[in-house]
Design brief:
single chain, 448 residues, alpha+beta, 5-stranded antiparallel beta sheet, 14 helices, 7% strand
Length: 448
């Protein structure tokens, strides 16, 4: 704007003066722009310094945060290691607890102690009982008692016991090393250890120790578990009784169905052939007498044909169908129940298997795996239930299929017999119609 003003003034004035004025204006404008430039450069330097200072502060804060992050990650790693150590110690404590529980259980069984619940009091008690048992094992004591000779004769004498692992008997009838037999009794198994027994009886120290070592009586005479149906049901638990009852029901239904089919098939095709032959020979009374003497599905259907023999063929066929349908439920009685038992018994056995395994895992969780006897009940329940389920299902399947085949044979015989008798009546009716040409006589015969 100033330039335009100067230009306008210059045009209106003298050229020399105008050039001087332009130079002065230029110098003045240059000085002004130079001052602006210096001011901008100073401000740029100031802002660059502030930006550098801010960047340095941000880098310092970033380094601090990174240091804290590294420290936190290191602390997290340490915490993770400490947690792994704690988990490992807890696992070792669980293993130690299982070992301790197993040790207490074995100590109860071995030392014949009462149930040990508190480990703090049980461990000193176990050590004292073990020390006493060791002292007892190393000592020789004598007592009056009875033992058996090798021939089986029981005699009275003095028994010298060396702890619970050896014994010698001395009597007038015989002496020597003893061995345990049934019910905690002792016997001279053979002529052995007489010198040792004689030295002990004389109160002397034996020169040679002739000994027959054996396990403690509690272990050697352990009573064998009874076997039988009661023991099997006891091992199987509640599901075993259910399967046993289901097996009894299956056997009862199979016997009832077999009896029903035996009654239903009485006579069979021989009866059908005999009746049809008499009908073709026009000996109706004899044929009806044969049917009246018999019971069962086949005679009943044939009697229905006899009672409706005067009807037309279509009506007679409907009567036969009705009679067969009336006998079908009797022939198929209990067939569906046997199929249900065949399908359900293995599933019940599987359910017993699952409950037995659950009981086993509960015992493992509570007592550990140190004592197999504690787990044997659940495992026995699982296996016995599986076996009982199959033992019920397999015979039921075989017998059910066999009876179903017999039932199909009976229904086939009934249908064939009814059809044969209907055809025999048709043949007899056609022969009678051919024999009588006079319609009146044919009508009389039909009425008769």
């Amino acid at each position: 704007m100033i330039l335009f003003c100067l230009l306008g003034a210059a045009l209106a004035t003298d050229p020399g003066a105008m050039a001087s004025s332009l130079d002065a204006a230029y110098q003045k404008e240059f000085a002004y722009l130079s001052a602006e430039k210096r001011e901008l450069e100073e401000r740029l330097q100031e802002m660059s310094g502030e930006a550098a200072q801010r960047v340095a502060q941000a880098n310092a804060r970033l380094e601090t945060v990174q240091a804290k992050l590294v420290s936190t990650a290191h602390e997290a790693d340490l915490a993770e290691d400490e947690r792994d150590i704690v988990d490992r110690e807890l696992g070792e404590m669980d293993d130690a607890n299982s070992v301790l529980s197993s040790t207490l259980q074995q100590a109860e069984d071995t030392l014949d102690l009462d149930p040990l619940d508190d480990p703090t009091t049980a461990i000193p008690l176990i050590f004292r009982a073990s020390a006493e048992r060791l002292a007892e094992t190393g000592a020789i004591r004598s007592e009056e008692g009875a033992f058996f000779l090798p021939e089986g004769q029981q005699v009275q004498g003095r028994i010298f016991r060396w702890g619970r692992v050896a014994a010698w008997g001395v009597s007038d009838e015989g002496s020597g090393a003893l061995a345990p037999v049934a019910e905690g009794k002792l016997q001279l198994r053979r002529r052995f250890g007489q010198a040792t027994a004689a030295a002990l009886a004389a109160g002397e120290r034996p020169a040679d120790l002739e000994v027959h070592l054996f396990e403690p009586d509690r272990l050697t005479i352990e009573k064998e578990k009874e076997t039988g149906l009661g023991s099997v049901l006891e091992d199987a638990g509640a599901m075993g009784y259910v399967l046993f009852g289901l097996g009894c029901l299956s056997a009862l239904l199979a016997l009832s169905r077999a009896g029903t089919l035996a009654l239903a098939r009485r006579g069979g095709m021989p009866l059908v052939n005999a009746v049809t032959e008499r009908v073709r020979a026009d000996r109706l009374e004899e044929a009806l007498s044969l049917l009246r003497k018999r019971g069962g599905s086949i005679p009943r259907v044939l009697k229905a044909v006899f009672e409706n023999a005067h009807r037309s063929r279509e009506e007679l066929d409907r009567v036969v169908d009705e009679a067969i349908l009336r006998e079908t439920p009797l022939i198929d009685r209990f067939a569906s129940a046997l199929v249900v038992i065949t399908a359900g018994a293995p599933l019940l056995g599987l359910l017993g298997t699952v409950t037995g395994m659950i009981a086993t895992f509960n015992v493992i969780t509570e007592h550990g795996t140190g004592n197999p006897k504690l787990m044997s009940a659940g495992i026995a329940e699982a296996l016995v239930c599986t076996a009982m389920g199959l033992a019920v299902a397999i015979p039921t399947l075989l017998v059910g299929n066999l009876l179903a085949s017999v039932g199909s044979s009976v229904k086939n015989t009934v249908e064939r017999g009814a059809l044969a008798l209907v055809n025999a009546f048709d043949l007899q009716r056609s022969e009678q119609e051919c024999a009588y040409e006079d319609p009146v006589e044919r009508l009389l015969v039909a009425n008769e």
